[in-house]
């Protein structure tokens, strides 16, 4: 059994998409990051970095319980465990390259673009411009790569496409104010729509909807989400 530690944000959504697409049985364990539940000792024992997603696989290698954290690591682990969504062996170098591009580029820069447009104080124009433009540059790199291609790596739907879907689903926040945020990137838009039409995508997006996650952004939320902005207690 897979235990998924989850908050309804882009990185956990990628893992939910895999689990739904693969038909793996799993349990959802909500972690309300706006309340700081990611910083509790119990969760830090699962992910020392204090972020979601993370999983516990109760039937890991040799039948032992294992933890896996970071969405990209989880996608690779689950794909290897199930032998699914890895594409052809000949495409593995390309798959890994794009996975790490998404993990180190498109995802983090998208997240920072959202932060500086929605959460940062006024007067952060340089940072806002820097992260939004870099997120858009990553969009363009992937858009150019997808010219004449259906999927990111090879001819098959893989965990690279799942990984891209998670943050592309929030393009309206990354490109705040754009009526059709993926319109300038037609190949990327086509990829997103292709993945989003899969029945598993709707099920993944619904994960956690029945849990009353905190929706108010107050001082507790800011301290929980951005603890490095605050000096440690004396």
CATH C-level category of the largest domain: Mainly Alpha
Tally of domains:
2
What is the CATH topology of the largest domain? Glutathione S-transferase Yfyf (Class Pi), Chain A, domain 2
Structural class: alpha+beta
Tags for this entry?
Glutathione_S-Trfase, 234 residues, GST-like protein, Glutathione_S-Trfase_N, 10 helices, Glutathione-S-Trfase_C_sf, Glutathione S-transferase Yfyf (Class Pi), Chain A, domain 2, alpha+beta, Glutaredoxin
Overall description:
This protein is of the alpha+beta class and about 230 residues long. It folds into two domains: about 1-85 and about 205-220, Glutaredoxin (3-Layer(aba) Sandwich), CATH 3.40.30; about 90-200, Glutathione S-transferase Yfyf (Class Pi), Chain A, domain 2, CATH 1.20.1050. The chain is built from ten helices and four strands. The chain has helices at about 10-20, 40-45, 70-80, 90-120, 125-145, 160-170, 170-175, 185-195, 200-205, 220-225; strands at about 1-5, 25-30, 55, 65-70. Strand 1 (about 1-5), helix 1 and strand 2 (about 25-30) form a beta-alpha-beta unit. Helix 4 (about 90-120) runs parallel beside helix 6 (about 160-170) and helix 6 crosses helix 8. The longest helix is centred in the middle third of the chain and has 27 residues, at about 90-120. The termini are far apart. This is GST-like protein.
């Amino acid at each position: 059994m897979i235990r998924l530690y989850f908050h309804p944000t882009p990185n956990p959504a990628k893992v939910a998409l895999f689990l739904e697409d693969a038909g793996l049985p799993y349990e959802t364990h909500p972690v309300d990051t706006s309340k700081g539940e990611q910083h509790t000792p119990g969760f830090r024992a699962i992910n020392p970095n204090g972020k979601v997603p993370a999983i516990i696989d109760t039937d890991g290698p040799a039948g032992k319980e294992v933890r896996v954290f970071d969405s990209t690591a989880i996608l690779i682990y689950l794909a290897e465990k199930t032998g699914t969504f890895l594409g052809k062996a000949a495409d593995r170098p390309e798959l890994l390259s794009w996975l790490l591009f998404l993990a180190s580029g498109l995802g983090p820069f998208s997240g920072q673009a959202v932060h500086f447009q929605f959460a940062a104080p006024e007067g952060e124009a340089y940072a806002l411009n820097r992260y939004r433009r870099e997120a858009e540059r990553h969009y363009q790199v992937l858009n150019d790569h997808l010219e004449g291609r259906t999927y990111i790596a090879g001819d098959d739907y893989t965990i690279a496409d799942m990984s891209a879907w998670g943050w592309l689903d929030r393009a309206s926040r990354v490109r705040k104010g754009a009526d059709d945020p993926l319109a300038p990137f037609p190949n990327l838009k086509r990829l997103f729509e292709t993945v989003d039409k899969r029945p598993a995508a709707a099920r993944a997006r619904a994960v956690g909807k029945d849990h009353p996650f905190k929706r108010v952004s107050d001082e507790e939320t800011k301290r929980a989400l951005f603890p490095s902005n605050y000096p440690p207690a004396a």
